[in-house]
Amino acid sequence: MDLQVRLDQEWGAYTEKDTVSGHLIFRNKAPVNISTITVKLSGIATSRLNSGRYVESHQLFQRFQNVFPPQKITEIPVSRSLTVGSGTHIFPFSLTFPATSECHKISLDESKPNQSCTGFLHRKNKTHHLLRKLPPSTGDTLSAWEVRYFLDVTITKTGILKGVEKLQTRNILFYPVHEFSPPKSILRRRCLLAISHDSVSTSSPLAFQVDVELLNGQCLLLGYPIPLRIKLTKVGDRECFVWLNDFQTMLVGSTETHASGLVEKDTQFQVIQTMSNIHHVVSHDRALNGAELCIGDSIWNKHRLPTTLTPSFETCNISQTYTLEVRLGLQCGYSKFRTTILEFSFPVYLAPPSMDPDPYEAKSAKLF
């Protein structure tokens, strides 16, 4: 007895909008009595702490389809099993990914053994299930955490050889898509850059209000530049030069895994762009009090977020979050110059690449 799974989409990743469809090719040399042939599409999130000593798995969802016997036959009162003759038999199947995790639906009765969300220690602790979008396929069996999607094919046989056999398991690559929507608000960080005058006799204060803004709020799209705006507002009438001398953007990722009542955190650093000694003029000596001086986005708009980064996600036992760090080195003064380093931190949500070919320009132009 031999079984093959052929998918209609053999290459590339599936998304939450896709259906996993294909055919089961079943070959047997002799007749066999079969009760059912079932295809199951599943997603599972596994966390491993202390080098795999503590493990917890959460069943994100399950979808079943009985491909045998055919629907028309099941409506007729016949025997619980049918004899499948020798030869090659083809059974179509079609299963769709849900939009969100259904871990909260699979295990509703906390008084019964939890087969979908299993921890090997502290099983009496109540598990909190989260309703979230499905995370991407990522990790592996050797990593501290793993998200895996797969097809299982099982055959229930009757007669002398009765029993349930899992004949095939097929891994499915899943990667969500993102429908970009206009931001509700700009995310802003502000600080004051005070400038000391060369002459101690001058009493008029001078400063620049520095604003760093994420024009699409917390949402950053992988594969696209950071939608950033930087502006300085002059406070005071004294003359002063200001240059942008250093510039850096960096993502700080944090992976938090839970297993058996324990928690571990791992931090990753990804420099998006770093520049030094660029001497970009921001303010000249004739800028008036209250003047708004913007730093052109040509400095950073050619640098895109790597698509190899894992998007932000959260399951019952695993979460991936990010913080964007923006670092400015501003050189200021009139005859004596000094460099001041300013750092800005933003909690951000990394979203998968958008289906819209130009999401920022098409839907955020009104912000500029």
From TrEMBL:
GO terms for molecular function: protein-macromolecule adaptor activity; ubiquitin protein ligase binding. Pfam families: Arrestin_N (PF00339). Residues 4-103 form the Arrestin-like N-terminal domain. CDD domains: ART10-like (cd22952). GO terms for cellular component: cytosol; plasma membrane. GO terms for biological process: ubiquitin-dependent endocytosis. This is Arrestin-like N-terminal domain-containing protein.
